Amino acid sequence: MKILQFPLMKITIWFIFGIVFSYNFNPKPTTTFIITGIFLVPFILTLYLSKRDFIQKIYFGIATYILFFLIGCLTQVIHNERYNDGNYVNLILNENENHCIEVVVREKLKSNSVTDKFIGLVNRIDNKNCSGKILVQIPKTQENSRIQIGSRIQISGKLVINKNPLNPNQFDYGKYLNNKSIFAQIYAKTNSIKINDKIDKNIWYYSDHLRNKIITNLEKNNFSKDELQVVSALILGQQQDISKEILNDYQYAGAIHILSVSGLHVGFILLFLTFLLKPIPKNKLGNTIRLIIIIICLWGFAILAGLSPSVVRSVTMFSFVAVGMYLKRSTNIFHTLLVSMFLILFFQPSFLFDVGFQLSYLSLFFILWLQPLISNLWMPKNKIVSYFWDILTVSFAAQIGAFPLSIFYFHQFPGLFFITNLIIIPFLILIMGLGVLVMVLAAFDFVPMITMKSLEFCLYFLNKIINWVASFEQFIIKDIPINWQTLFCLYLLIIAVVVLLKKPNYPKIVVALFSLLLFQSTLLATRWEIQNQQEWIVFNSWKNTLITERNGNKVTVYGNDSITHKIASNTALKSYLIANNSKVTGINKIENLYYFKGKKIMVIDSFVIYSKNINPDIVILRQSPKINLERLIEINRPKLIVADASNYKTSMLLWKSICIKKKIPFHATVEKGFYSVN
C-alpha cells in the first residue's frame, strides 16, 4: 500500500494516536509540556547522527514518530478548554442554585415547538468574568424572538453540567457536547431573561444577517416552504427548520449527507468554479489568478454557510486540493489531503471525534484510492453512459469507505443508496449551481422569477425522487449491531481486499484471508460473549418503571401498561437491544419479588405490598410508595435501596437522607442512571 509509504502519512497517524491518547487519559498540561521538551534532546541528537550513519536514520525515524505522538498529546491538551483557568467549568458552581449568566449568542440550533436552542459564549457568571461555550434553551415567545446571532442576553437559572447517559448504550449527548467544548446547559424560564439592546457585530452576526436577508427575499417571492427548507440546508447550512418528514425521507433514501454542507457540496462548488474559469489561460499567471478566485469564492461560501465546523473543515480540505490542482501536483493528491487533515487537527483536534470529519475524510480517501480501480472494470465508449458510470463508481467508492463507520454510529444502512446517488448527483450539480446563483442575487435584493422558479422546480423534483426511494422501506437495513473491534477488522478486511485487487500476489492473498478470519473471529467472539451474559436492569424511564432481564440475546421486559404497549418506540430499550444484538422474547407485568444470580430483589410500589420476612439484597422503590423506609431497613436489612424515575423528587430526597443516616447505599436513577445486576 503505497500511501503508507508517504512519510507524511506516518507522521499524521502518530499525531492522531497522540490526540486519541490524550483524549482518553487526560494527561496534565505541565507533565505533557515537560515530557515533550525533554524528548526534543534525543530527537535533535538522532537528527544530527542520521546525517553520518544510515543505521542512525532508523533511530531518527522512530524519534520523529514519538515526537509527533507527543505533539498530538500536547495539541489536544492545549485545546482542552477544561485546562483554561478562565473557563466557567473551573468555577465552583452549585447546580442546585440559580446563577446569573451573561452570554453572547453565537449559533442557533434546531428548535422544537416550544423552545429555541442557541450556543452562547459566556462573559460572566455571578459577576465573575469567565469564558466558554454553553447550550442555552429559551422558551419561544414574541419577546424572545428578538434574539439573534450577536445578541447579549442575561439569564437567571440553574446550570446543568453535562452528564453521562442515564440508560445503557444510549447516545452520549453529554460527551457529544463536551467534544465541542460545551460543558453545561441552562434552561431559561420566560421571566428570567433580559435581552440587551447592544449586539456584538462580528463575522458571525453579518453572516447570519446575510442568510436571513436571502431567506426573507425568497419568502417574499413566494418560494415554496418545503423547497426553501432544503435549499437553505444545501447552500446556507441551515437545517433548523427542516421538517421531520423530509429528514426521514432523506435518511431512508441514503441521501441525508446532502442536507449537511460538507465536502460533497464544496467539491461541487470547486468543480463549478473550475468550469466557469476555463477561459482563463493555462499559464503560470492564469493558474495563480484562478487559484486566488477559487480560494476567495470557497471561503466566501464558508462565511455564507455560517462558518460551522463542518463547513470550515470542508473548505480547508478543498482549498488544499485546489492548491494541489493549480500547482500541478495532482499526483500528490494524498499529500494534499494529509496536509489539510494535519492542519485542521493541529488547530482543532476535537474535530477528530466528529462523525462528519471522519466520514468526510474516509469517503474522500476511498474515492481517490478505490474509484479508479472500480472505474477500470468497465470502460464504456458512449460518453453519456461513461458519465453515469463514473458517478456510480464514485458513489460506490465513497459508500464502501463510509458504510462501516455509518453502521457503527447509526446502526442502519440504506440498501438503495446507489440508485439515490445515481439519480440525484447529476441533478445536484444543477441545483448547487442554480442555488448559489439565486442566493447571491437574493443577497442583492434581486430575485429573477425564471431563475427562482427553475430552482424551485428542481428542488421539488429532488424531494419527490427522495420520497419515492425512501418509500421502499424493505431495502433499509436497520438495527445493525457493531462494536469498535468489528469496525476495525472490517476496515482492515476492506483495505486488504482492495490492495489484493490492485495487484494480486500470494502474500496479499494471505493477508486478505487473515483479515477475513480476523473479522469473522470478532463476530463470533462478540456473539459468544453476548450468549454467555446475564443482566438485570432497572432503566431510568421518566414517570414509569422499566425493568429488563437478559439471558444471552433473549430479553424479558417488565413494566406497566404505558410502557409495555409502546416497546417498539421506546428509544432507551431499542438502543440496549441493538447494542447487545438481542430481542424481546417476553413482556410481563412487574412482580414484587425477583431472584437473579443468587440475589433477592424486592419491588415496592404505591400499594406497599411486600413480605416482611424476605430479607432482600436489593429493594426497588417505584411510584412513590408511602413507606416507613427506616423501619423497612431495620426489619429487612437490605444491602441497597434503588429508586427509579417513577418516584416524586421529594420522596427520593427523603429516602436519600434516611439511607445516609442508616449508612446504606442509595441509588436514584435520575442522578446515577440505570441500575444493573450482572
A few lines on this structure:
53% of the residues lie in helices and 16% in strands. The chain is of the alpha+beta class and 678 residues long.
Strand order of the largest sheet: 1-2-4-6-5
CATH architecture group name of the domain at 534-677: 4-Layer Sandwich
Count of extended strands = 19
User: Which stretches are poorly predicted, pLDDT < 50 over at least 5 residues?
Assistant: none
Category by helix and strand content? alpha+beta
Main pleated-sheet profile? 5 strands, mixed, barrel
Strand content: 15-25%
Give a description of the structure.
53% of the residues lie in helices and 16% in strands. The protein is an alpha+beta fold and 678 residues long. Among the domains are: 2-78; 88-200, OB fold (Dihydrolipoamide Acetyltransferase, E2P); 484-531; 534-677, Metallo-beta-lactamase, Chain A (4-Layer Sandwich). The strands form four sheets. The chain has a five-stranded mixed β-barrel with strand order 1-2-4-6-5. A five-stranded mixed sheet has the order 13-12-11-10-19. The longest helix is centred in the middle third of the chain and has 28 residues, at 383-410. The chain is globular. The two termini are 45 Å apart. The model has no long low-confidence stretch (mean pLDDT 86).
